[in-house]
Amino acid sequence: MTRDEARARDAADPLRGYRDRFALPDGVLYLDGNSLGPLPRDAAPALADMAGRQWGERLIRSWNEGWIDAPQRIGGKIAALIGADPDEVIVADSTSVNLFKLLVAALRHDPARHTIVSETGNFPTDLHIAEGAVGCVAGARLNAVARGAISAAIDGDTAVVLLTHVHYKTAERFDMASWTAAAHAAGALTLWDLSHSVGAVPVDLNAAGADLAVGCGYKYLNGGPGAPAFLFVARRLQERLASPLSGWMGHAAPFDFADAYQPASGMKRWLAGTPSMLAMAGLEAGVDLWRAVDQQAVATKSAALFDQFAAIGARLNLECASPANPERRGSHISFRHPQAYALCQALIARGVIGDFRDPDILRFGLTPLYLGFEDVWCAGSILADILTSGAFRDPAFAQRNAVT
Ligand SMILES: *Cc1c(COP(=O)(O)O)cnc(C)c1O
């Protein structure tokens, strides 16, 4: 694709208008929205209103003026993006904490089942949390196996199959419906981590018959650094599962100040402590931006951006680590290169922000709301220049930062 062709595709792009809804800095090509979504323009005034008016002026009265319902309200908006009903999703805590709550609840759900089945090489927190969860339930164990062995690992002892829908490194995507059916055939529940899916690929939890899910607010939802996360529990399970973090906000009547815990009905029981309203304001601004977005247009453009980037990579002899089939991948593209870290740093020095994942993955988020074909063209020409000039061999680019 030439630069002129890229411009023509941008001009004809039905999502083009969304770009102006983000405050992207000049001189930066942002290909890391899969790790931290950029600032929506509406977020700054929303945060200012939260601090200045809601907190500053309305003070504690704000709890009855929209704060206390924020977890359910924002959850309901996220539900529309993941094929769930509004009363099946709530915003709370972090993805890690939500994983813990749901994994322990799933392990306690059927005393005859003791095992969490998951994938080795999954995003580390998922496996770390699973380890912690089995430590909290007598007899429970974690069986993490390579992708090719998951199917055989699901058996009559499996309580829950924990899968990350889109792999954080390679962007490989599980077929949610068929894996859910396989888990159900063995009597197990499924827990889908949607961190790299929500806002990236079409998700239809209820059509797939999914049981449980969690997802991240600060990636494709653009909710701000460390934004609250969300969790989904299918309605049929809601009264049968209970959170191990039995905090007062999940109580049936928190302001009765009772000694004994009694879980709220519905999704409220997954709240633990008081939610951060400052963080909720950022998340709601990010989620609201998605309200009118045509998800199919996002998927179509994501696939086109991928193909464009994959062709650039092929010309540069980079090994693509992501699946060719758009139905089988998420919305990022990864290349393998022995100097992936230095390449990533050299790109950042030239204003092209992607990221590196140990040991050899160079990863670029393809976010159709604010990224266009000319952006990918420009990123590709800078990548070509860095590779052919050898600029990435500068020792300064080998210096590891704390966050990669
Ligand atoms: C980003 C991500 C998380 C994030 O977890 P935090 O608790 O927000 O740090 C969890 N799981 C997956 C698969 C992710 O990609």
Automatic annotation (TrEMBL):
List, alphabetically, the Pfam families matched: KYNU_C
Summarizing the function annotation, the protein's role is: Catalyzes the cleavage of L-kynurenine (L-Kyn) and L-3-hydroxykynurenine (L-3OHKyn) into anthranilic acid (AA) and 3-hydroxyanthranilic acid (3-OHAA), respectively.
Subunit info here reads: Homodimer.
Q: Which UniProt keywords apply?
A: Hydrolase, Pyridine nucleotide biosynthesis, Pyridoxal phosphate
One GO molecular function term?
kynureninase activity
Q: Where does pyridoxal 5'-phosphate bind?
A: 95-96, 123-126, 164, 193, 196, 218, 248, 274
- Pathway(s) this gene product operates in, as recorded in its UniProt entry: Cofactor biosynthesis; NAD(+) biosynthesis; quinolinate from L-kynurenine: step 2/3; Amino-acid degradation; L-kynurenine degradation; L-alanine and anthranilate from L-kynurenine: step 1/1
This one is known as Kynureninase
Q: Which family does it belong to?
A: Belongs to the kynureninase family.
Record has Hydrolase as a keyword: yes
Q: Which Gene3D superfamilies match?
A: Aspartate Aminotransferase, domain 1, Type I PLP-dependent aspartate aminotransferase-like (Major domain)
* Keyword flag Amino-acid biosynthesis: no
Starting at the broadest rank, the lineage of the source organism is: Bacteria, Pseudomonadati, Pseudomonadota, Alphaproteobacteria, Sphingomonadales
Q: Which reaction does it catalyse?
A: 3-hydroxy-L-kynurenine + H2O = 3-hydroxyanthranilate + L-alanine + H(+); L-kynurenine + H2O = anthranilate + L-alanine + H(+)
Write down the EC number.
3.7.1.3
Q: Which residues carry this modification: N6-(pyridoxal phosphate)lysine?
A: 219
Q: Which domain of life is it from?
A: Bacteria
Q: Which PANTHER family match?
A: KYNURENINASE (PTHR14084)
**Which cofactors are named for this entry?**
pyridoxal 5'-phosphate
